[in-house]
Write a structure and sequence with these properties.
The chain has five helices and eight strands; from the N terminus they run E-E-H-H-E-H-E-H-E-E-E-H-E. The longest helix has 25 residues. The chain is globular, with a radius of gyration of 18 Å. It starts with a strand and ends with a strand. The model has no long low-confidence stretch (mean pLDDT 92).
Length: 232
């Protein structure tokens, strides 16, 4: 039996608010196909971070919002060998009721994350990178955001249901089959980015994708092995 552990790191950029003057919200991050690949990416990223800190004399986190364009490009480019993903929400097209209060916004964010994860895994299955007839484990790491304990379990359990049991829509009498046929394990962790280098890498790509939409610059979104999911 092969080890099928997929690790995903996600961060967001922009504001999910109907009245915000910039109508773009993005989740961006990276997908690692093995623990070895994840560790390799971390080592590469740390090497560039240390070099940039030595040059600048900084000792804090190199966040996209506080570093130069050149530094952002270097931190973005060092992750080129790895799969990346983006979910883009055009906020002025989202129903008012969805963004009416904080709880609704959090539920919508969870929906975006869940669908981004599912579509990413469907892509990996279509490329025969993962096997639906083998045990599967997903480690999903998300930049820390306000959420209740119920919200944490809701996201984890809803992803598990989609992957393991499929979804039945009783209103329309339709059933979507599960993605995996054997054992499925889903872990969701919320990280603090100043202690997490791959979380910092997710911040950089999320910011770049957000800026690309703000500027209407499609060239900033061109990457090899990149999956983009638009909303709504």
């Amino acid at each position: 039996m092969t080890d099928q552990t997929i690790t995903i790191y996600l961060d967001d950029s922009g504001v999910l608010d109907k009245n915000h003057p910039v109508p773009h919200f993005v989740y961006g991050g990276y997908v690692f196909l093995s623990l070895e690949e994840k560790d390799h990416a971390k080592r590469r990223y740390i090497k560039v971070v240390k070099r940039l800190k030595n040059l600048s004399g900084r000792n804090d986190e190199l966040k996209a919002a506080t570093i130069s364009l050149d530094s952002k490009r270097k931190l973005y480019s060092v992750m080129n060998p790895f799969r990346s993903i983006t979910a883009h929400v055009k906020t002025d097209r989202v129903y008012d009721s969805i963004l009416s209060d904080k709880c609704s916004v959090h539920r919508y964010k969870d929906y975006v994350i869940k669908l981004l994860v599912k579509r990413t895994l469907e892509q990996l299955l279509s490329e025969n990178i993962i096997n639906p007839d083998e045990d599967f484990k997903l480690d999903l790491n998300i930049d820390e955001q306000p959420t209740s304990t119920d919200g944490y379990y809701s996201l984890r359990d809803s992803i598990y249901e989609e992957l393991k049991n499929g979804i039945t829509n009783w209103d329309y009498g339709t059933t979507k089959p599960p993605l995996f046929n054997k054992k499925v394990e889903v872990n969701v962790e919320y990280f603090v980015s100043d202690h997490n280098y791959l979380g910092q890498a997710a911040d950089i790509i999320a910011n770049r994708m957000w800026v690309s939409y703000c500027q209407g610059n499609i060239n900033m979104r061109k990457r090899n092995n990149h999956f983009l999911l638009p909303f709504p």
